[in-house]
Amino acid sequence: MTYTVNTFFSVVIYALLFITTYFEVFLLVTYFWERNKFKETNLNSRALEKYPSVTIIVPAWNEEKTISGTVNSLLQLDYPKERLNIFIVDDGSTDKTFEVANRFLSEPQVKVFRKENGGKYTALNLGLSHATSELVGCLDADSFISPNALKEMLPYFDDLEVMAVTPSVQIHQPHSVLQRLQAIEYMVGAFTRKVFSRIDALYVTPGPFSIYRRTIFEKIGLFAHGYDTEDMEMALRMQSNHMRIENAHTALVYTVGPKTLSRLLRQRIRWSSGFLKNSFFNYRHMFFNKKFGNLGMLTMPFAFISIFVGLAFSALYAKSILSFVLEKYVQFSALGFRSVFHAPRLDWFAINFGVRNLIIYLLLFVTFSFVFIGMKMVIKRFRFSRDIVYFILLYGIISPFWLAVSVYNLITATEVRWR
Fold first, then answer.
1. Measuring CA to CA, which residue among 259, 251, 248, 253 is closest to residue 182?
2. Which residues of 16-27 are buried (b: 16+ CB within 10 A; e: fewer)?
3. Per-residue model confidence (pLDDT) at position 151
């Protein structure tokens, strides 16, 4: 019986390792296959001949400390002022957000709206109801954009099939260990989102500065609650209607990362729960459906399964650590201090080159490759730093907590509270 159980778990582990390895290697191969096109889009972004009218909506709830920087970054965009409108929508803030926003009314581009608190999606929809421009974007009130970001994104709309363009979101001035960890995570995200866009498989249009053709809202409706992830729900709705989403990896947008562990967990629980619930309750018809291409056959199913894979690997990791500690405790009890704590010796023959370990080594190599390529995309060079060390050592320890809560929320249909 024990042998059968162990065999079953070994088969499951190898299957999970194979799925994970296949997907990550697929992304890496796709990047090298398509990397010349990345350069082409970057060069084309320099030659902007047409300036379509654009409205940027800034939904804000209790953002008095950051909204000035957000609006100022919009005012500093390298774009004709007569072609750019900025709508600030105060979603029933209880602090001085509305007062701070009104200071920008001297700018002819800026309009300020105020409404009762109803959630970010309602603030976006209020802005949409007043927008008449060709393109409409959104920018979270704790985010800041680079002056050339809009110009970097617009050439993608030359392709009439492209209905939305997403930027490269990065962490703004990381200071704490958690923010530095996130900085590397977001650089990896810059790589994966670009590859996803090349295979038409993006499933989120992030709040920090995604740009849409305004006509799509007339065709598929306005923003919805989407389990507090309206940007993810909108992207999935667009994909379910076969609307193409592109990524402008050279358009840099900076967002303030959570400084504390509790805030980071709340944010990630909301994101993970939102993805699980949106994909399972509203868009599961897209899973393994050839009509939705790579998104339905590859990206969406793997993103869904990867949450459970992450939990499984975390459990195995915890079990290995516990077994190691117990083994050392037995050695200490029987043979004393020196048998446990001694100087390590490098012995190549002691390294485990079993199939499972070789796959794990390959996954680590691919992960480092993602970090390397992501850094090259964002800061144009690779620089080894303590941020990478934080990411490698801590991310795998922290992430299982929000993954576990997200799965619990899916199973129990628990509503996420993140404010």
1. 259
2. bbeebeebbebb
3. 95
Of the candidates 139, 59, 126, 65, the residue with the CA atom closest to the CA atom of residue 96: 65
User: Looking at residue 161, what DSSP letter applies?
Assistant: T
> Which structural domain, as residue segments, surrounds residue 227?
20-44+142-302
- Asked if the structure places residue 262 within a domain, the reply is yes
Nearest to 144 by CA among 229, 228, 257: 257
The structural domain count of the chain equals: 1
Q: What is the pLDDT of residues 107-133, one digit of tens each?
A: 999 999 999 999 999 999 999 999 999
- Quickly count: other Cβ atoms within 10 Å of residue 80's Cβ: 10
360 in a domain, yes or no? Answer: no
Q: What is the pTM of this model?
A: 0.90
Please tell me the distance from the alpha carbon of residue 267 to that of residue 247, in angstroms, as a whole number: 23
Q: How far apart are CA 46 and CA 53, in angstroms?
A: 18
**C-alpha closest to that of 120 among 88, 94, 91, 98:** 91
Tokens matching residue 61 = 């709830």
Which strands sit side by side in the sheet containing 84-91, from one edge to the other? Answer: 110-115, 84-91, 54-60, 135-138, 211-213, 162-171, 244-255, 143-145
What is d(CA 52, CA 154) in angstroms, rounded to the nearest whole number? 8
**Residue indicated by tokens 């350069």:** 39
> Does residue 234 lie in a domain region?
yes
Dist CA 45 CA 153 (whole Å): 7
Beta carbons of 67 and 60 less than 8 angstroms apart: yes
- The Cα 129–Cα 89 span in angstroms is 12
> Phi, psi at residue 248, to the nearest 5°?
-100, 95
**Is the pLDDT higher at 248 or at 349?**
248
N residues, the chain: 419
For residues 382-392, average pLDDT: 89
